[in-house]
Hints:
The protein is α/β, with parallel strands linked by helices. It has helices spanning 4-12, 16-22, 30-37, 50-55, 57-60, 72-78, 116-128, 146-152, 166-170, 233-244, and strands at residues 24-28, 43-48, 66-69, 87-92, 106-110, 133-137, 160-164, 177-187, 197-201, 218-221. Strands 7-6-5-9-8-10 form a six-stranded parallel β-sheet. Strand 5 (106-110), helix 7 (116-128) and strand 6 form a beta-alpha-beta unit. The protein starts with a helix and ends with a helix.
Amino acid sequence: MLTKAKVKYIKSLQIKKFRKMYGEFVVEGAKSVLELLHSDFQISSLYLTDDFSKKYENLLKSVKVEIISVKQQELEGLGTFSSNNAALAVVKIKDNNLLLIEQEELVLVLDEVKDPGNLGTIIRIADWYGIQKIVCSNDTAEVYNPKVISSTMGSFTRVKIYYCDLLEYFGRGLKEKVYAAMLDGEDVHKVKFEKKGYLIMGNESSGIRAELHPFISEKISIPRKGRAESLNVAVATGIICDSALKDA
């Protein structure tokens, strides 16, 4: 049964301080909840319409969590979606575990990427290119923000995120090459990327902070042919990943 206490609790998880306090976040929509059900995230409770429950009856038989039947109107009142006729989940936040290169792979590093939509899109781009790890500065947008989760379209279940002080992270003396997207860098289409490395993408307006420059092995840029002043950081990430991983 959907009680007033449950409604109040779920709505509180739209706010960062309560997500941090309770260690849980919300996932909305059929696609994202289905991705969640196939992931290693720990689900606390599910709020499902009868249509969704009937459609995925066999899958839900193996789910050992509290399942509460709700009407579409109730579901839409719980979350941030203007329309949701399927599902909502309350999920445990994962531990913030250190991520390092362990094989031939490209690891994304985000320095103060503030916009939740950009972070969500970058996570989705990473998933598209098979990138499994993203290291974020502490002042990058929070991955469990509802806008981020929504923008990933379920990719948050496959891409690991680690938040840290980037100066301390790179101060470990990492051996792998560090690429950085900067306006004065070499044409990304001419760069020969190594099989193992880090790619730093910077703040939407100010780029990569100066304190990180000593750790950069190679600056790269996307050549401009038109008159646009800059590229959206998520768009730029997609272009660079495509070039970096074309031979992977």
